[in-house]
């Protein structure tokens, strides 16, 4: 394992270019508590951007229109300003799925968001499909919201209408993730120490409860082929689950504090986890090996110091869709962009009180949410990937680590195709 603390003066590192800001409106006597933007999300097809604006409210905006507004009106926008207002008048059938802005009152504090799209060919696991209330078409786009009271509400993105109300968790629903295969399988992570698997094509039927965490579950993420799920939580927990059998594959050991975020690389070969121990680890999920460590405090803290209040808690991590860059957000008022083969950030951006971050669908923009319900956007590093990186991603999309290692090819070629330090 190699440890990569930042060894370069951050004044020498390139500052990311600001794309825009969506600033939450503040009422004269607005309470600070409840305004937090715990989650931001981009639709899989890039059509929408959503964030929890605080005080039960989720805002959905067409992403292309949002970018256009930044270009026309400058980087700053108040989220209720007229320049972001789009037509909400009833449209005819031909314009049914034309992106329109929606403001959704979820009825309670929103902790998590996730977009899900439907693929009709991916059938529900339910046998009695003729009894379904909803028949999702190929053009369906859903938004799931996880609430403070343990409920999950499912909304139609195009109309803003509530479709389903999923009730089973007993505590805050801290994270949500849809299977990328279009099956509309939804996994929820909760402070009640469980993960629950829901089939939205079966009218939101709860299929399975995944138990194993001994404390709060903070985050969960599907692998790109939907076969594996990672869940992370308090007490240093990082679990991998087989989503065909709903069984635990392994527990990953290495962090020294609560693990609060996770994300797979686009080829599924790498897993990034972020922890309050000031570190982001890059794992091989098939072997459990730590391949890289991105430190946010130099020199690296001892395990005792890393396990306490160190002022460098890493709050969020996200893999770019180029598979080459990782973004992290920490309590030191900084967003960092890392290359998976570099030992220091390649770009940084200032951010106070950041809570969450996510790359846009095409990977060109990073969005980050803050304590006051606002969102900030930056241009991401754009670099031509090496031939090695393209070859690795191509083969790892279809082969796990063990199968690659067993290929009857020269050792040098095998090394070329492997993610190693």
UniProtKB/TrEMBL annotation:
InterPro entries: SOCS_box, SOCS_box-like_dom_sf, WD40/YVTN_repeat-like_dom_sf, WD40_PAC1, WD40_repeat_CS, WD40_repeat_dom_sf, WD40_rpt, WSB_SOCS-box_domain
Membrane-spanning intervals of the chain: none
Single Gene Ontology BP annotation: protein aggregate center assembly
Keywords: Repeat, Ubl conjugation pathway, WD repeat
Residues in SOCS box domain copies: 377-421
Alphabetized Pfam families for the sequence: SOCS_box (PF07525), WD40 (PF00400)
A molecular function GO annotation: ubiquitin protein ligase activity
Pathway: Protein modification; protein ubiquitination
Residues in WD repeats: 136-165, 166-208, 210-251, 252-293, 314-348, 358-378
Any single GO CC term annotated in Swiss-Prot or TrEMBL for this entry: cytoplasm
Task performed by this protein: Probable substrate-recognition component of a SCF-like ECS (Elongin-Cullin-SOCS-box protein) E3 ubiquitin ligase complex which mediates the ubiquitination and subsequent proteasomal degradation of target proteins. Recognizes type II iodothyronine deiodinase/DIO2. Confers constitutive instability to HIPK2 through proteasomal degradation.
PANTHER family: WD REPEAT AND SOCS BOX-CONTAINING PROTEIN 1, WD40 REPEAT PROTEIN
Protein name: WD repeat and SOCS box-containing protein 1
Organism expressing this protein natively: Catagonus wagneri (Chacoan peccary)
């Amino acid at each position: 394992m190699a440890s990569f603390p930042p060894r370069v003066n951050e004044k020498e590192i390139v500052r990311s270019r600001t794309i825009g800001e969506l600033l939450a409106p503040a009422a004269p006597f607005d309470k600070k508590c409840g305004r937090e933007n715990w989650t931001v999300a981009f639709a899989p097809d890039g059509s929408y951007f959503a964030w929890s604006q605080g005080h039960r409210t989720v805002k959905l905006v067409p992403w292309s229109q949002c970018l256009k507004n930044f270009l026309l009106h400058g980087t700053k926008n108040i989220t209720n300003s007229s320049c972001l207002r789009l037509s909400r008048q009833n449209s005819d059938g031909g314009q049914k799925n034309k992106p329109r802005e929606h403001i959704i009152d979820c009825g309670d504090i929103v902790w998590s968001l996730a977009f899900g799209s439907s693929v009709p060919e991916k059938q529900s696991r339910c046998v009695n499909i003729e009894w379904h209330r909803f028949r999702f078409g190929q053009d369906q786009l859903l938004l799931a919201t996880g609430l403070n009271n343990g409920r999950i509400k499912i909304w139609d993105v195009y109309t803003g209408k509530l479709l389903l109300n999923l009730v089973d968790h007993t505590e805050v629903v801290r994270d949500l993730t849809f299977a990328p295969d279009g099956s509309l399988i939804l996994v929820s992570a909760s402070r009640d120490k469980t993960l629950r698997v829901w089939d939205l094509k079966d009218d939101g039927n709860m299929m399975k409860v995944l138990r194993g965490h001994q404390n709060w579950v903070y985050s969960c993420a599907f692998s790109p082929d939907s076969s594996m799920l990672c869940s992370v939580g308090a007490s240093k927990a990082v679990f991998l689950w087989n989503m065909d059998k709903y069984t635990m594959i392994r527990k990953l050991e290495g962090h020294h504090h609560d693990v609060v975020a996770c994300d797979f690389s686009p080829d599924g070969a790498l897993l990034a986890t972020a922890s309050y121990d000031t570190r982001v680890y890059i794992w091989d999920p098939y072997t459990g090996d730590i391949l890289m460590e991105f430190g946010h405090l130099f020199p690296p803290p001892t395990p005792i110091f890393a396990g306490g209040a160190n002022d460098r808690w890493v709050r969020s991590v996200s893999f770019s869709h180029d598979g080459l860059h990782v973004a992290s957000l920490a309590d030191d008022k900084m967003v960092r962009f890392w290359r998976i083969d570099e030992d220091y950030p390649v770009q940084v951006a200032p951010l106070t009180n950041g809570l969450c971050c996510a790359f846009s669908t095409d990977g060109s923009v990073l969005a980050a949410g803050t304590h006051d319900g606002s969102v900030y956007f930056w241009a991401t590093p754009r670099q031509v990937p090496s031939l090695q990186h393209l070859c690795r991603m191509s083969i790892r999309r279809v082969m796990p680590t063990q199968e690659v290692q067993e290929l009857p090819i020269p050792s040098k070629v095998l090394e070329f195709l492997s993610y190693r330090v």
